[in-house]
Amino acid sequence: MTKPIFITATDTDAGKTYFAAALTHALVAAGFKTAVYKPISAGCEEKTDPQGNKQLINQDALLLQQQANCQQGIKEINPIAFKAAIAPHIAAKKLQQTISLTQIETGFEVCYQQQSDYIICEGAGGWRLPLGKKLFLSDFVKATQQQVILVVNIKLGCLNHALLTFESIKSDGLTCIAWVANYPEATAENLSYIYDNIAELCDLLPMPLLAKLPYQKDISLAAEQINLALLT
Length: 232
Ligand SMILES: Nc1ncnc2c1ncn2[C@@H]1O[C@H](COP(=O)(O)OP(=O)(O)OP(=O)(O)O)[C@@H](O)[C@H]1O
Ligand SMILES: [Mg+2]
Fold this sequence. Notes:
The chain is of the alpha/beta class. The protein has nine helices and twelve strands. The chain has a single domain (3-230), classed as P-loop containing nucleotide triphosphate hydrolases (Rossmann fold, 3-Layer(aba) Sandwich), CATH 3.40.50.
């Protein structure tokens, strides 16, 4: 049976793609067939394929594709893409388009057809990402009943952001199965403060800490920090 996992974070740029790529790498290395899904992206490069068709390519979708072991095209991984690096529903509005939950769910069903062990699904922005018309990306997670992993960017303000995000996930009736401490900006000077924040969150959040991720360029080394036993 396919197990979908939705990766959310305390904010944009918190490390969702970084962690999702590392998790995908770890699952593939452990022998699992792993598909990826990035339903919505904003901030894409326009490229022309050999047939002359223009396509919007999102960097997150490319990074996830590189780690997964299913035959998924970029459009399949990332069906809704906007060129401008702005809130997706505002980008859609500027183009007189709307983002529909059906479109996101249909893309998810296509991923399911891979019959993989896991689908690693990366959100966009934070938990309550607006889609327009009073809909949110969290409505898709609710409709598909995915388990959630929360990536926390460990910095000033993260305790509040992490707790509010956790409470929202819970009030949506979903299970946050684990959290991740991501701290690429740690220095010799602030490391003990970062560890204090991680200890606070270990105390305040009821779900287990899945990985501690300091700065590391190599995704395969980051993958080794993930305690996969907590997922299976
Ligand atoms: N632990 C880390 N070590 C090294 N680089 C990191 C780490 N965590 C994040 N980064 C880098 O920080 C940047 C932001 O991270 P990332 O793209 O994963 O955030 P995101 O939450 O996916 O953002 P978005 O909301 O735009 O999707 C990226 O360039 C990423 O490679
Ligand atoms: Mg990302």
